[in-house]
Amino acid sequence: MISVASGPRKLAWRIGEVVETSPDTPRTKSLFLEIPGWEGHRAGQHIDVRLTAEDGYQAQRSYSIASAPEDGTVELLVERLDDGEVSPYLTDEIRVGDGLELRGPIGGWFAWEAREGGPLLLVAGGSGIAPLMAMIRHRKAAGNDTPVRLLYSSRSYEEIIFREELEALAAEDTALEIIHTLTRSAPPKWEGYHRRIDAEMLAEIAPAAEEGPLAFVCGPTPLVETVATDLVGLGHEPSRVKTERFGPTGG
Amino acid sequence: MDEHRLDGNAAGGILGEVFTFEMTTARAACAHCGATGPLGSSMAYVSEIGTVVRCAACDNALIRVVRQDEGPARYWLDLRGVEYLQLE
Amino acid sequence: MSGGFISRGFRGRRRRAEGDVRVPPGQYLVEGFPVLSAGPTPRTPLAEWSLTIEGEVDGPRTWSWEEFRALPSEEVTRDIHCVTKWSKLGTTWEGVSVDTLLEGVDSAAEYMVAYSDGGYTTNLPLEGVTGGKAWVAHTYEGEPLSPEHGGPARLLVPHLYFWKSAKWVRGLRLVTEDEPGFWESLGYHNQGDPWREQRYWGD
Questions:
Q1: Where are the domains of chain B?
Q2: Could you tell me the CA-to-CA distances from C58 to A174, A239, B58, C61 in Å, in that order?
Q3: Which end of chain C is least crowded, N or C, by CB within 10 Å?
Q4: Does the pLDDT of residue A5 top 60, yes or no?
Q5: How far apart are the first and last CA of chain C?
Q6: How many percent of chain C have pLDDT more than 90?
Q7: Distance from C-alpha of C120 to C-alpha of A231, rounded to nearest angstrom
Q8: Which of A53, A101, A248 sits opposite C12 (nearest CB)?
Q9: pLDDT grade, residue C38 (50/70/90)?
């Protein structure tokens, strides 16, 4: 990975190439991109993607980067929204070898570098795992032992994105704790949480406010607003609760 | 709750077209209520008509940006809602 | 600019409408009803809602929600055109004509500023909103207008780009000098006629 001194620069559109795709869950897919001249990113940042039709029509969306800065390619996690315009193209149509117009990395606010320490509280809903996965992967790649707790809300067990990788990472790392909650169906004998994230769950999971954890919350707007409000209610410093709402039109 | 509200981070793209500095970590002071904080912690309303960054405390429009896509690219930028911007 | 890059296989959901005389130049047709937000969606209770005509008038007049709803409403079916290039054909609204609201108002004003909950404003020449060309709409497709589309009431000026149809409208201020509104002061065209493609300053 080449690291270029990050002086002031303006964002410009450029063309990345899809070098690999891989299904994650029934509704999500990862695209791996090679981006000529990529300066590297910080875990948590996003890129803007712009699609252009032959008649000139354009559609633009933001996608969080799921890969660590140390990884060789840039991974985008795309959730397919049936009534979406961009996500069905990215999950169903685009293939290895295609170009994808993009710009980035964007957003130094919702970003974490291992040297910033923690402890970290990561809270994700659905595909909101993407920027938090970048942080978890970055922490491992950097050989960092910052204590991390991930509270991850998914609709069902089958829809837990990156489930196997998360299990493997947690199995070998006692400082990484992963707690799942399932909001719709749960498998037989499921012993974990089986409801939406609420203040009681956060009180059980979050490090005490006195430990001064740095919280990153990402997912659908209702989840993000609930979690941010509840964490502040539990005494967490608002400036250390960073949020990334996906909004109504991630598609 | 407002479904269309995004974090200031979401305005990072268009602000990055206009400014050479990282804008989501730039600190802004609201000209209406005086609240200060990084733009990433403010609220952003992003649509094809334009981007409006609003104060998280009082909803005052801090920054408005409009981009004309066709023809020669043109931008309009309204910073009347900020007392100051601190860029690093 | 993209330098001519085309995303292989991408068509988008919007459709070019070439040859359709109902669709202004440069517009695409949509089936849904996109929502563009420049700020939080106001949710003013009807008991606190009112509509005011003020400015260069002999005396301001104000209607409560019940008084407003007691005014005669008209049903109109019109095509609407957004400056972001979507058009939607045959939308049906019910509302009170601006002619009705201005009945008996004595004013030398030639312009008005529509203002809304949340601080949004848009400016219009009076001749563009009188003579059966504009309404304060409270009903869309037979249902009360939802907050995300501007309810309880929005201005409806279908012959101009749709940003002129101010959502959450609370008043019309009559003025002798034109005052550019929220978008008109930031690059968008002062008139906004879709048939003349008046999108930006200088168009």
A1: 10-41+65-81
A2: 77, 52, 35, 9
A3: N
A4: no
A5: 20
A6: 91
A7: 33
A8: A53
A9: very high
Distance of CA A75 to CAs A39, A133, A176, B82, Å? 15, 11, 22, 36
Residue of chain B with shortest Cα separation from A242: B41
CA proximity to C22, closest of C93, C89, C113, C86:
C89
- How far apart, in Å, are the Cα atoms of A184 and each of A21, A25, A198? 28, 16, 15
Chain C residues touching residue A51 (CB < 8 angstroms): 7, 10, 12
User: Which of A14, A31, A49, A89 best tests the C interface by mutation, with the highest count of C CBs <10 A?
Assistant: A89
pLDDT of residue B4: 83
What's the order of all strands across the beta sheet hosting B6-7?
Answer: B6-7, B43-47, B50-54, B61-68, B74-78
Residue type, C179: E
Angle value at C-alpha A167, between A162 and A170, nearest 5 degrees: 120
User: Cβ of C74: how many Cβ atoms within 10 Å?
Assistant: 14
Whether residue A198 contacts residue A230, with contact meaning beta carbons closer than 8 Å, is answered with yes
**A249 or A67, higher pLDDT:** A67
Contact C5 A101 (CB under 8 A): yes
Of A95-99, A199-203, A243-247, B81-85, the one with minimum mean pLDDT is: A243-247
Is residue C142's pLDDT more than 60?
Answer: yes
The CA distance from C158 to C140, in Å, is 13
At residue A180, does pLDDT exceed 60? yes
CB contact under 8 A, B48 and C186: no
- ipTM of the complex, rounded to two decimals: 0.94
Is omega for the bond preceding A213 within 30 degrees of 0, making it cis? no
Looking at the complex, does the CB of residue A52 fall below 8 Å from at least one CB of chain C? yes
- pLDDT, one tens digit per residue, over A107-140 is 999 999 999 998 999 999 999 999 999 999 999 9
Domains, chain C, ordered by start: 49-75+92-196 (3.90.420.10)
List, in order of start, the domains of chain A with CATH numbers.
14-106 (2.40.30.10), 114-245 (3.40.50.80)
Q: Residues of C numbered 11-70 whose beta carbons fall under 8 angstroms of chain B's beta carbons: which are they? A: 35-41
The H or E element spanning position A203 is: helix A199-205
B48 HSE (CA, 13 A, CB side): 18
Both tokens assigned to A179: 């707690």
Structure-block tokens of residue B77: 């930028």
Q: Which residues of B touch C (CB under 8 A)?
A: 2-5, 45, 47-50, 52, 54, 59, 61, 64, 66, 68, 73-74, 76, 78
